[in-house]
Every structure is written in C-alpha cells, then in structure tokens.
Amino acid sequence: MIRSAFFEPNQAVQFLNSIDAIKPKMGSTTGFLWVSLESATEAEVNLILRDTFNFHPLSIEDCLSPGYQVAKVDDFISYLLIIAHAIKPAEDIHQLVTLELDLFIGQNFLVTCSTEDNMSPVEKVWERVHKDFRLSNFGADFLCHTILDALVDEYMPLIDQMDSEVELLEDSVLEKPVPATLHKLLMLKHSIMELRRVISPQREMINRLTRDEFELIDPQSRLYFRDIYDHLVRIQDLSDTIRDIVSGAMDIYLNSTSLRLNEVMKALTIVSTIFLPLSFIAGVFGMNFTHIPTAAHPLGFYICVAGMILIGVAMLIYFRWRKWF
C-alpha cells in the first residue's frame, strides 16, 4: 500500500492518491513530500524508490533484504537512509518481535518503508497529520523526528511491563521457588537481551543525528533528536537494571533451591544418625548368642526400647544444642 501527502507552510495537507500526483511535488521548493510504503510489494518498492526517487541500489537492497538490518544511518549525499526498529505489540512480553522501518530523508521529501500495514508509529503520525496541521510548518527532518519519537515512545510500556513482571517473579522466588518461575525468568532475560540488541545500535544512530554530521538535519531539529536520544539512554539504563534484577533473581532461585536441598539432606542425616545407634543396639540383641545380658530378663525388651528412646532424645537435644537444625 502506498500513501502520500504534501505539506506546505500554513496550508492544509494535500493527500495524494497516485504516482502522477506525486511527481510534480518532488521538485517543490516551498513544501515537502511524505510517501509511505506499507507492506509494499517488490514492484511497488521499485516503482517508488528506484523509478520515482532514483535512490541508490544499495539503499533499495536494504529495504528489500529479508534479513535483519542493524539500526543505522547512511549518507548518500542527496538523502539519508535511516533504518530503525519498532516493537510489535504483543500480549506476551516474553515473545519480543521487532519490525524494521526504513526512512529516506531528503531536502524536500521523506519516504518511509515498512514491512507491515498500519505499523503503530507510522499510523500515529498519519492520524496526527489529519488533525494537526502544524507539521506543515516544519521540514521533512522534523517529520522524521516525529515518527522516530513515536517509535521510541512505544518502548516504555514494554519496559514497564517487564519491570512489573520481574517484581512479581522476584517475590515468587523468595516465597516459593518452582521450576516454572525459573522458566519465566529465563524467557524474560532473553526478551530483555533482545531489546538491548535493538536499543544499542539505535541509540548510536540517533546520536549521529544530533551532531553536525548531516546537513540535511536542521540545527533546530537536532535538539528534538537529542530528546529522542535522552529517551533511549533512559530506556537502556532501565533495561540494564531489569537485566541485573533478573540475574539476581536467578541467583536467588538457585541459592534457594540449594538451601532447600541442604535442609532436606540435614533432616535425612539427622534421622539416619539417630537410627544408627538404635540399629546397633537392635543388632547386638539380635545376635545368636546363648548368654546376652538382660536378654532373659522379663523387662529386657522394654529396657532396650527405653534405652533406644533415651539415646534418640539425647542425640536430638545435642543436635539442637549445636544448632544443626
């Protein structure tokens, strides 16, 4: 699907419905053009990126490549190629899915290319375009900032979910560590590591846009990109904190299970130690000798049992005194 709009200062946004309507606006010096490719076919990508805007084949290849592209910004002199990654909303935070968003930014145009329809950051900006005409008073670089800002803002709900999840798991580990809790901790750790792999290169990419490296980025817009960079720094710090908490919770789980095992072994050892002398006494009196002291006594059995109980109680008192349990 191809959507496009033309922006002019203090003018209503013009929504364009065809390639023939797009081409006359490409050479405008008073406004800028936004073309959005959403879940576009290879033919549509080639039509817009190659035949209409004449982008470099390498930049087109990045859009068509089915593999994972790291977040980056490439300077092709007349335009910039920005590759960013959005988070796909999901009910299960343990299944983190990222979506690639490619942005071509020039002096008077912005072309966005995504692999899915209605990608949330792009859709939010389209809704804003219909309601807020102030975007027309800024350039294509500010529109690019608006999309990236919406993209980065969607990281925070995920971070908040992970934070709440790790608090619950940490309490569960302390109260009753079970294998299911360990499984959830491992899944959460994998998700946070995947998120960090997305954030780290994206943070560096935004950082490059905040410097004087690219002439296509207006000095005023660099201040807004710096705000996105600050958000990414905060998100990365929070993700590092959650990762450390998850690692600590896993250590607590392993220590708790080891402690429980030690308690069980201690109890079994105490029982075995108590029954060791009792088994010895029972074995002695069970030997096939003719004369065994008190064996013929009418109360011999009761004396033996009383001795066993006395020894067992004495050993328990001794173990308790030594604080072995």
Question: How would you characterize this protein structure?
Answer:
The chain is of the alpha+beta class and 325 residues long. Among the domains are: 135 residues, Beta Polymerase, domain 2; 58 residues, Magnesium transport protein CorA, transmembrane region (Methane Monooxygenase Hydroxylase, Chain G, domain 1). Strands 2-1-3-7-6-5-4 form a 7-stranded mixed beta sheet, with helices on both faces. A hairpin with a 6-residue loop joins strand 1 and strand 2. The chain is rod-shaped and about 120 Å long.
Question: TL;DR of this structure?
Answer:
The chain is an alpha+beta fold and 325 residues long.
Compute the average pLDDT: 82
Computed over alpha carbons, the radius of gyration is 35 Å
Poorly predicted residue ranges: none
Q: Tally the beta strands.
A: 7
Helix percent reads: 55-70%
CATH topology of the domain at 1-135: Beta Polymerase, domain 2
Number of helices: 9
> Which word captures the global form?
rod-shaped
The proportion of residues in beta strands is 5-15%
Task: Tell me about the largest β-sheet.
Answer: 7 strands, mixed
Structural class by SSE content: alpha+beta
Strand order within the widest beta sheet:
2-1-3-7-6-5-4
* Amino- and carboxy-terminal Cα gap: 71 Å
CATH architecture verdict of the domain at 1-135: 2-Layer Sandwich
| Level-1 CATH class name of the domain at 1-135 | Alpha Beta
CATH superfamily of the domain at 1-135: CorA soluble domain-like
State the order of secondary-structure elements, H for helix, E for strand.
Answer: EEHEHHEEEEHHHHHH
